[in-house]
């Protein structure tokens, strides 16, 4: 390939020397008459080593993956808890942002529960996936609880009597006296 | 999730640096009328405080018992001393010590000598009895030391004459007259001391003269002048001339036809004829010099209600004969005469309605005559004193201090007014706030428009707006001044003091005051307490004091109703001071209380007689449905109600409260009429709530026992008469003032407690104590007491159970030591009650007003330990038993406000601010922001720099906009 007549046009060179085949993601079939050497090699090797996994195996694998996703929020919990503890209970920009995130993430996660498990869904693992989903929801609720705990610590929850004081009325006396002193 | 209002409350309650008064506010927000009272002619004089220097000061002892020195050039007070106020009826005596830098006063039982230049006490002495006369003795020529003082006392109907040493005030000698003669006056000449007394029985007296030796006080001789038919009381003796070369005693016969004059030390008396005056002589006075070196001349002044005339007499010292020198012609008006002397010369100054004439006692030639031009409407002249100075051989100058019937003290220098002092403002007995009346026309027209049909309403509105355009030029004219005023720190343009309008902050309010002289005066609190109008509402004879039961202001009608204790009633227009209505004197019935009651038609005033009964028969349509709490005739407090019987009503006693036997009720206080509470609970550090016990009907009764030296404080419900709380203190000085105040859910009182030796406990502290009690519905947080969440309460039937006990509040009490006596307490008021309250205390010892913040007086402050961080968050800090008079909480700062009787407060439109007004002898007013002025820009706010910044930014934008636009366009073309 190195000895090519200098008059050979560029496109001829390109034709003789095609660019290396990129790993294919798409299922587009090769054009007619094109044979890829590497592909054929690879096919030959897999044909020899691996047998395609059975549906059960795929399902088990998917379920395993689904559990990983379900438990992912729990892994963040200790970290979040430490940060919340560190940021203190005063009303500052940092702690307010922390609290905002602590509420935003679990709520968004809860809303996207089905999307998160969509790709693992199949006919066979439906029941197992429900358990994983429940675990996922549970974890998100746990994260949300952490946020609420923080908000409570900051005194922003109307849990005490003083928060409702403004709606309490003074007792109206039925009789009035006019002092003349 | 805290709510704005409770958050605000909490924030306000814990602001630590809420100062009472800032340095840059002093003299700006407060005003003070430094007053003396109406000067008494016989105790007013010009005197040189430093004998070697020429300048003189004007000294006076006023009718309120205040002595003071006034700079005659400016009218400013140099010094003042309050000797007695509200204690003595006798006016007292005040004399200069000629040739020495001191002045001497005698009032009631005390005699004091004061440094004439600064008013510091040289010495003071108190004796038994009351002072009847005071004279300064002339010392013999060449004698060393200071001049001695002669004081005549009346002690249990007998006279005692004491000579006090001029340097120390110690008694040099004492002469007691054992006979029960009425002591009159004391007089001296060079050789002897004369004690003049009235001898005989009631209904006719002889004049008894006792001659004493000035050195030893031994009686040398005694003689009696027969005057039995003419002299019936001490007032009938016209004059006992003092200290002159020839002191005289004079009296007139009953018909005022002749006058008898006796020269002390000489025998016999001479009759001088009194010439007829138009309208008949009603009053005769004698004016004589008071200096020993003065010529022995005197002037007899005869007054009728319409005109006056005078005669000048000379005494021949060798023969003792009295000759008429010349006569002064009769002039219209009562007039007044004053004597002044310079060296041996004696000058008489004659005041007429519009002229001042000075004459020498020697001849009838007029030395000076000036037409008096007063700048303001001071009213007619009543009395005056003058100082005549000989400038050159034939030119004289006169300074006259004149009291006018509007109560002004005016200094006239050669006929021109130099200054005037509004002394009529002194001696205020009652005061009340009034809103500035405002035309409600706009509100009315708007109402009209809302009722008519849209088209005609629209046309009406357009025409009204066109009509309003005529105010536009004036408004535009005033605009630059308004803008400048709001930007610049100094005021531009002057305000018209007589025209008062409301302002946006509610600082402009009228204060209606009633003085003991029967005068009603309105001041504008927003304009440094300037006078708005003044009106003589009641004619008071001398010595009589107007006692006012209450001033009731009807802001809707713009009227002021004043009730006197004698039953007199005056209605005035609040804007102009015109008297709208007045009670006939025949209808007068003494009243013990007056109260504003409401019925369907509006508010009216119900006076009560001394028996605690309504003076009027109350018709059924006017009868108040509420219980009225009054002081009863037997020293009790009672609740009364009006029961409807057909068209009339019957007064029914609901309850009556008498303290423990031996105690008498001295004071009853109720919550102020305007006492809003923003939050019904107190938020604790753990965010639980302690509910306040808020009973609008609560009253605090103070009862003292003089014998057992105890004082009890009873908290009553004034609807049912139930006793809610009792506190008793033993070992109390009951002669000291025991003021109290009740507001919101707490009350405070001050006592002087002695240290009691008990076996049970350690002795308490001796001194003035301030006790603060706070009432809660329950001692437990989050508990609303026995009534729970009930919406209504009834004092008479607290619950469904028959004869149930009332809800008793949980009381937390703490006492504090204070270094000063408190004579009166009051509490600040604000519009919504969001701002914390301050306890305003009058400290008579330092002549000031002390505002104690509520946080300092919190009874829940931790005792014996430091506050925790959470408690600090709530605003509690460690209890310290001693409250210092912190200068930054003294609202009067450097001012000396004397004789304060009471303080009244009123809310401004700004929630942060409460107006206060203190009255008595002086008048003081200020604004307080107990939780700092959170809704108004302070003086430190630089409006000018703010405006400059905005303008600079605006200019910057204008300059940069085209540049930026060009750059952006270029950028688009380039790419």
From TrEMBL, chain A:
Q: Which GO terms describe its cellular component?
A: endoplasmic reticulum membrane
What subcellular locations does the record give?
Endoplasmic reticulum membrane
> In which family does this protein belong, per the annotation?
Belongs to the EMC4 family.
Q: What is this protein called?
A: ER membrane protein complex subunit 4
What's the short name of a Pfam family annotated to this entry? EMC4
Q: Which residues cross the membrane?
A: 82-103, 130-149
Q: Which UniProt keywords apply?
A: Endoplasmic reticulum, Membrane, Transmembrane, Transmembrane helix
Q: Which domain of life is it from?
A: Eukaryota
Under the heading InterPro entries, the entry gives:
TMEM85/Emc4
The topology of this chain with respect to the membrane is: Multi-pass membrane protein
UniProtKB/TrEMBL annotation, chain B:
Classification via SUPFAM superfamilies = Quinoprotein alcohol dehydrogenase-like
- Localization terms from the record: Endoplasmic reticulum membrane
Q: How does it sit in the membrane?
A: Single-pass type I membrane protein
A biological process from GO? protein folding in endoplasmic reticulum
Can you name a GO cellular component term?
EMC complex
Which keywords accompany this UniProt record? Endoplasmic reticulum, Glycoprotein, Membrane, Signal, Transmembrane, Transmembrane helix
> What InterPro entries does this protein's entry cite?
Beta-prop_EMC1_1st, EMC1, EMC1_C, PQQ_b-propeller_rpt, Quinoprotein_ADH-like_sf, WD40/YVTN_repeat-like_dom_sf
List, for all copies, the residue spans of the domain called ER membrane protein complex subunit 1 C-terminal. Answer: 743-973
Domain named EMC1 first beta-propeller is located at 20-423
Q: Which segments cross the bilayer?
A: 944-964
Q: Where is the signal peptide?
A: 1-20
Pfam families xrefs: Beta-prop_EMC1_N, EMC1_C
| SMART domains found in the cross-reference section | PQQ
Assembly and partners?
Component of the ER membrane protein complex (EMC).
**What family is this?**
Belongs to the EMC1 family.
- What protein name is recorded for this chain? ER membrane protein complex subunit 1
């Amino acid at each position: 390939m190195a000895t090519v007549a200098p008059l050979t046009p560029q496109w001829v060179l390109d034709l003789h020397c095609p660019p290396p085949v990129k790993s294919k993601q798409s299922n587009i079939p090769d054009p007619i008459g094109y044979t890829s050497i590497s592909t054929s090699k690879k096919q030959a090797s897999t044909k020899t080593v691996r047998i395609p996994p059975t549906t059960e195996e795929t399902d088990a694998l998917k379920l395993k993956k689904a559990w990983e996703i379900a438990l992912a929020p729990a892994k963040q919990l200790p970290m979040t808890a430490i940060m919340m503890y560190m940021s203190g209970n005063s009303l500052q920009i940092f702690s307010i942002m922390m609290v905002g995130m602590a509420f935003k993430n679990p709520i968004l996660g809860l809303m996207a529960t089905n999307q998160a498990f969509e790709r693992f869904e199949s006919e066979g693992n439906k029941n197992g996936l429900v358990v994983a989903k429940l675990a996922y929801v549970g974890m998100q609720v746990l994260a949300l609880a952490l946020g609420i705990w923080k908000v409570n610590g900051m005194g922003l929850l109307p849990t005490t009597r003083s928060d409702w004081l403004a709606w309490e009325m003074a007792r109206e006396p039925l009789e009035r006296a006019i002092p003349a002193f | 999730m805290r709510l704005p209002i409770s958050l605000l409350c909490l924030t306000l309650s814990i602001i630590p640096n809420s100062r009472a008064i800032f340095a840059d506010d002093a003299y700006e927000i407060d005003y003070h009328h430094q007053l003396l009272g109406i000067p008494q002619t016989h105790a007013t004089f010009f005197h040189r405080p430093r004998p070697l220097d020429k300048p003189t000061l004007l000294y006076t002892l006023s009718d309120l018992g205040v002595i003071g020195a006034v700079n005659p050039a400016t009218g400013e007070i140099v010094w003042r001393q309050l000797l007695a106020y509200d204690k003595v009826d006798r006016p007292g005596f005040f004399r200069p010590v000629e040739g020495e830098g001191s002045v001497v006063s005698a009032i009631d039982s005390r005699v004091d000598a004061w440094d004439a230049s600064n008013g510091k006490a040289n010495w003071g002495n108190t004796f038994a009895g009351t002072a009847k006369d005071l004279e300064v003795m002339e010392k013999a020529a060449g004698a060393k030391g200071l001049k001695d003082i002669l004081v005549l006392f009346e002690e249990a109907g007998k006279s005692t004459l004491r000579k006090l040493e001029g340097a120390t005030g110690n008694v040099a000698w004492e002469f007691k007259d054992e006979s029960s003669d009425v002591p009159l006056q004391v007089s001296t000449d060079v050789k002897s001391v004369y004690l003049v007394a009235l001898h005989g029985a009631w209904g006719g007296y002889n004049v008894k003269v006792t001659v004493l030796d000035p050195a030893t006080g031994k009686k040398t001789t005694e003689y009696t002048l027969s005057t039995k038919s003419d002299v019936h009381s001490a007032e009938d003796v016209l004059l006992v001339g003092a200290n002159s070369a020839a002191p005289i005693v004079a009296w007139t016969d009953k018909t005022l036809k002749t006058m008898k004059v006796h020269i002390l030390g000489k025998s016999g008396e001479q009759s001088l004829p009194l010439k007829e005056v138009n309208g008949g002589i009603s009053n005769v006075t004698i004016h004589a010099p008071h200096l020993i070196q003065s010529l022995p001349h005197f002037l007899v002044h005869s007054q009728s209600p319409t005109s006056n005339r005078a005669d000048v007499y000379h005494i021949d010292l060798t023969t003792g004969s009295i000759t008429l020198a010349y006569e002064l012609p009769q002039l219209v008006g009562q007039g007044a005469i004053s004597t002044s002397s310079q060296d041996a010369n004696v000058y008489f100054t004659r005041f007429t309605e519009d002229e001042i004439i000075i004459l020498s006692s020697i001849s009838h030639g007029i030395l000076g005559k000036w037409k008096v031009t007063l700048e303001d409407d001071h009213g007619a002249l009543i009395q005056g004193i003058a100082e005549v100075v000989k400038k050159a051989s034939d030119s004289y100058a006169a300074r006259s201090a004149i009291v006018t019937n509007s109560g002004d003290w005016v200094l006239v220098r050669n006929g021109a007014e130099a200054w005037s002092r509004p002394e009529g403002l002194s001696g205020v007995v009652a005061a009340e706030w009034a809103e500035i009346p405002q035309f409600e026309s706009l509100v009315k027209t708007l109402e009209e428009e809302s009722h008519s049909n849209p088209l005609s309403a629209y046309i009406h509105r357009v025409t009204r707006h066109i009509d309003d355009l005529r105010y536009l030029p004036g408004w535009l004219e005033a605009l630059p001044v308004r803008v400048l005023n709001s930007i610049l720190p100094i005021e531009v343009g002057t305000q018209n003091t007589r025209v008062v309008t409301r302002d946006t902050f509610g600082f402009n309010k009228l204060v209606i005051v009633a003085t003991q002289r029967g005068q009603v005066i309105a001041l504008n609190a927003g304009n440094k307490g300037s006078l708005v109008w003044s009106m003589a509402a009641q004619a008071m004879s001398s010595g009589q004091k107007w006692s006012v039961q209450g001033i009731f202001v009807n802001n809707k009608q713009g009227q002021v109703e004043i009730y006197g204790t004698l039953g007199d009633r005056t209605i005035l227009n609040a804007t102009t001071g015109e008297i709208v209505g007045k009670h006939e004197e025949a209808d007068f019935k003494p009243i013990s209380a007056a109260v504003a009651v409401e019925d369907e038609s509006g508010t009216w005033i119900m006076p009560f007689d001394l028996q605690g009964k309504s003076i009027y028969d109350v018709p059924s349509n006017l009868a108040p449905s509420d219980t009225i709490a009054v002081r009863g005739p037997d020293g009790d407090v009672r609740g009364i109600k009006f029961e409807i019987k057909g068209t009339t009503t019957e007064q029914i006693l609901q309850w009556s409260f008498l303290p423990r036997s031996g105690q008498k009720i001295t004071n009853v206080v109720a919550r102020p009429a305007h006492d809003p509470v923003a939050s019904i609970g107190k938020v604790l550090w753990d965010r639980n709530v302690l509910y306040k016990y808020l009973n609008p009907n609560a009253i605090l009764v103070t009862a003292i026992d003089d014998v057992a030296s105890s004082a009890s404080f009873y908290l009553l419900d004034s609807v049912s008469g139930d006793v809610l709380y009792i506190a008793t203190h033993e070992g109390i000085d009951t002669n000291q003032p025991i003021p109290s105040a009740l507001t919101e859910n707490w009350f405070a009182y001050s006592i002087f407690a002695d240290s009691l030796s008990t076996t049970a406990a350690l002795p308490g502290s001796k001194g003035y104590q301030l006790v603060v009690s706070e009432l809660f519905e329950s001692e437990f947080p989050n508990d609303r007491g026995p009534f729970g969440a009930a919406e209504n309460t009834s004092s008479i039937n607290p619950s469904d159970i028959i004869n149930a006990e009332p809800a008793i509040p949980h009381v937390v009490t703490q006492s504090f030591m204070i270094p000063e006596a408190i004579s009166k307490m009051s509490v600040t008021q604000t519009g919504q009650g969001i701002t914390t309250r301050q306890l305003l205390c009058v400290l008579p010892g330092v002549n000031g007003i002390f505002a104690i913040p509520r946080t300092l007086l919190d009874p829940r402050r931790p005792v014996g330990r430091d506050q925790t961080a959470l408690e600090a968050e709530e605003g509690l800090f460690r209890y310290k038993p001693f409250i210092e008079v912190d200068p930054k909480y003294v609202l009067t700062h450097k001012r000396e406000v004397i004789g304060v009787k009471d303080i009244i407060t009123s809310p401004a439109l700004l929630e942060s601010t409460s107006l206060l007004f203190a009255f008595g002898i002086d008048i003081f007013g200020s604004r307080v922001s107990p939780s700092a002025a959170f809704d108004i820009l302070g003086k430190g706010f630089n409006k000018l720099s703010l405006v400059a910044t905005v303008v600079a930014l605006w200019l910057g934008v204008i300059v940069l906009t085209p540049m930026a636009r060009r750059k952006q366009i270029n950028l688009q073309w380039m790419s």
